[in-house]
Amino acid sequence: MPTWLEGHVKERKQKRLPTVTLCSSAGNELLEVWYYGELLTVKGESQSYIIDRGETPGLVAARDPESGEEFVIFDGGQHGYDNMFCDEHNPAQLAHRPLQRYEIPASKLVLELGYNIDYEDEKESFEVDEADTVELVNGERMPWEQVKRDGIDYIALYYVNDKGKQLQILDAELA
User: Fold this and answer.
1) Residues forming beta bridges with residue 156, ordered by sequence position
2) Which among 15, 8, 7, 6 is positioned nearest to 113, based on CA atoms?
3) What is the band of 72 on the pLDDT scale with cuts at 50, 70, 90?
4) Which domain does 103 fall in, by range?
5) Taking 90 as the threshold, does the pLDDT of residue 15 lie above it?
6) What average pLDDT does range 94-107 have in this prediction?
7) Whole-number percent of the chain with pLDDT over 90
8) Buried-most residue among 11, 15, 113, 167 (CB within 10 A)?
9) What's the CA angle centered on 150, arms 48 and 64, to 5 degrees?
């Protein structure tokens, strides 16, 4: 499970991919979705997908309407393998991504995560130092165990509508 989601996972399931239900620190599952990006309408689907805005990576957060707590679900400029090791982003762009509300009621949010990279098998190609850390593309160092948790290669976000159906609103390949 990615470290940035610690304290925000209510339920874990192993389906085709690891799947988690999100919650606020208070344990509330009905969350609003806030995002920076653009909405893409896919023919035949009722909901829109959150995508990057031009060159600026998207950002998706959840907000607990009861407590006001907000936490990041996915940062398209930092999270996942490509953002950790390949893609460089302008820090000024990442700093200015004002969020707007995704137009659904507070809902149960389900996240699917892809872990298809065998980090242990490829460990020597990461140049792990004696402190067991790895240098990221932005120059920061991250502990090896955190790399394995945060270096996801796929993420999808769904909300559960009033009929109990999961509708996908984010789909990102990260490697």
Assistant:
1) 112, 171
2) 15
3) very high
4) 3-173
5) no
6) 97
7) 97
8) 113
9) 50
Site of tokens 């394995």: 148
Query: What is the count of structural domains for the chain?
Result: 1
Pairing of strands 70-75, 100-101: unpaired
Residue 131's pLDDT is 97
For residue 142, what are its two tokens? 């991250």
What's the average model confidence in pLDDT over 45-63? 96
**Residue carrying the six token digits 């993420």:** 155
Locate 163 and state its tokens. Answer: 């009929």
> Of 42, 23, 40, which Cα lies nearest the Cα of 111?
23
For residue 160, which amino acid is it?
Answer: V
> CA angle 159-48-69, nearest 5°?
45
